[in-house]
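User: I've been trying to design a sequence by hand for this structure and keep getting stuck. Would you show me what you'd pick, starting by listing the structure so we're on the same page?

Assistant: Good idea, let's start from the same input. This is the structure you sent:
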């Protein structure tokens, strides 16, 4: 599936210069969200997406970024908490 995503707005919290409060439940089934500021990779310069446990299944339709996007089909995707996150696998 080829999806073109276009950023359209920053989160309200970021516009106001305030950190957002992450909703850990705003995540795919079996995962929880943590702030990207808390994510770590094995190599410090590596893209933080590599710290995301959901990455192998990612199709770009689950929002991890703080800004809204509009898909080619016109659907608006956004995080309700307005935070930039990575997803970690929930403990069993």
């Amino acid at each position: 599936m080829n999806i073109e995503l276009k950023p359209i707005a920053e989160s309200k919290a970021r516009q106001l210069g305030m950190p957002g409060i992450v909703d850990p439940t705003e995540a795919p089934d079996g995962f929880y969200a943590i702030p990207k500021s808390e994510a770590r990779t094995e190599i410090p310069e590596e893209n933080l997406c590599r710290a995301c446990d959901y990455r192998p299944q990612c199709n770009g339709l689950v929002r991890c970024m703080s800004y809204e996007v509009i898909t080619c089909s016109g659907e608006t995707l956004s995080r309700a908490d307005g935070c930039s996150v990575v997803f970690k696998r929930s403990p069993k």
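That's my pick for every position. To get oriented when you compare it with your attempt: Confidence is low (pLDDT under 50) at residues 5-10. The chain has one domain: 6-89.
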